[in-house]
Amino acid sequence: xxxxxxxxxxxxxxxxxxxxxxxxxxxxxxxxxxxxxxxxxxxxxxxxxxxxxxxxxxxxxxxxxxxxxxxxxxxxxxxxxxxxxxxxxxxxxxxxxxxxxxxxxxxxxxxxxxxxxxxxxxxxxxxxxxxxxxxxxxxxxxxxxxxxxxxxxxxxxxxxxxxxxxxxxxxxxxxxxxxxxxxxxxxxxxxxxxxxxxxxxxxxxxxxxxxxxxxxxxxxxxxxxxxxxxxxxxxxxxxxxxxxxxxxxxxxxxxxxxxxxxxxxxxxxxxxxxxxxxxxxxxxxxxxxxxxxxxxxxxxxxxxxxxxxxxxxxxxxxxxxxxxxxxxxxxxxxxxxxxxxxxxxxxxxxxxxxxxxxxxxxxxxxxxxxxxxxxxxxxxxxxxxxxxxxxxxxxxxxxxxxxxxxxxxxxxxxxxxxxxxxxxxxxxxxx
Amino acid sequence: xxxxxxxxxxxxxxxxxxxxxxxxxxxxxxxxxxxxxxxxxxxxxxxxxxxxxxxxxxxxxxxxxxxxxxxxxxxxxxxxxxxxxxxxxxxxxxxxxxxxxxxxxxxxxxxxxxxxxxxxxxxxxxxxxxxxxxxxxxxxxxxxxxxxxxxxxxxxxxxxxxxxxx
Lengths: 431, 166
Fold this sequence. Notes:
Chain B: GO terms for molecular function: peptidase activity. Chain B: Keywords: Aspartyl protease, Hydrolase, Protease. The structure holds 2 protein chains of 2 kinds. Helix content of chain A is 44%, strand content 19%. By secondary structure, chain A is of the alpha+beta class. In chain A, strands 1, 2, 3 and 15 form a 4-stranded mixed β-sheet that branches. Chain A has a 4-stranded mixed β-sheet with strand order 8-7-6-11. A 3-stranded antiparallel β-sheet of chain A has the order 12-13-14. Chain B has helices spanning 21-31, 46-52, 82-87, 104-113, 139-163; strands at residues 5-11, 38-42, 56-65, 75-79, 120-127. By secondary structure, chain B is of the alpha/beta class. In chain B, α1 packs across α5 and α2 packs across α4 (104-113). The longest helix of chain B is centred in the last third of the chain and has 25 residues, at 139-163. Chain B is 36% helix and 21% strand. In chain B, strands 2-1-3-5-4 form a 5-stranded mixed β-sheet, with helices on both faces. Chain B is globular, with a radius of gyration of 15 Å. Chains A and B meet through α4, α5 and α6 of A and α2 and α4 of B.
């Protein structure tokens, strides 16, 4: 309470996030002294277990890092290994990969919007309460998510940890009948995505503005998802091979996930970064629909990230439709990727932000070193900075309400803790 | 009624010791060639459960559970009553509701609220002793696997007998 000079808020296990983490906030004499997002999932050791594996294995092995965004891991891994081997996968195979990635964006974002984040804005405890208060809304969300699942299943062979991705392309190409089915599913998904955008844009958003660095892929001809150049809002664009010189990871005692900075500054990856750095390259139709609901070319309020996610879902649906419409079967499901001794770099836009992989291969194609920088690890610093700014003007709230708001704020970033742990219980210390 | 689909879904993680009970149960059912429309493992995520049991006349979900107080190896067969569930959800309101933390109870309650339960839903729950990281079932759960297999088989046969009428 406000008459206390010292206050401690603790959330021991954050709810409605991907994984296990906790939040610790301490307040001294009316000033927020410390904010720590504590990730306590066990370390994963993926970078170590990849050493000594064949160069063909990282796509399948790293997909196991996350059940929500396995395609992101597969794509960044494929790009990195193919880069090392001097192979570029383009044409219709690249388009099919993009289609698979659109499926993951649709299902991952929709899961977050409907099941994890929207209940906060509706002052409901969870998706179950949303189902009881408005079953039709949640049915729409589940239908939209299923559209994403179906894309992943057709292209990837199954919904979780797809098995059809390989270096150079795919094990099996989709049939025309399968794509026609997806086209039919996507027609309804298009309507559902537009309705979702209108729905979330009508929520009430607390005031908060980010002021830190942003990092996302950009490309000249469109909205970046599976290719592009890493670009900082302040740092500017830089080659992917220089990624580790710009994005530095460091350990902090309170987290099993590494923290990261971009040129020494906390930075944010994900929907807000992508939107602010790339929304002007979205199709005019998407920009117009976003503008209609009040989402302009810049969005600095993390609470409005749910609107950006909905816009990204709409874009992913239309992009998937475009790819299917123009699809011509490539001559083979995959192109050859012979090994060579080299270092390769791969970076794509996972739903939660930029995902970087690097592999050092020897002449036999054995992985000698692997580096993986997931988006949630990059975002931890920015989340703590934003939370500090969010909590300070709200210290008059009682512990229960402040805790609830902090959890909502953390969910703005859709942290994927399993990816980052190399989720939330809140402790607030007011003394 | 006679053409109704029967699905058997196993939920669990074989790398968390007894949480892998359903994996063993389904492996045994597959080895015995249980004649059902779908025999599949699932991570228990509610939307996937709903998709798996969509339009099913009977869905059987096999899962491992904590007992308080527990009796490792004890099997609970619970037929879900949607009307009762809507009136009195078997969900701990304080339990975590992250996508990794949603239990089967949340999934079933969510499906009931959305009108997306199968016509008949049977939960076969095996009480576990050890849910720490690692492979292999505890002796009590190992002993329970054949009994859980028999329970699933019994439920499938009873449903078929009822569906084919007198």
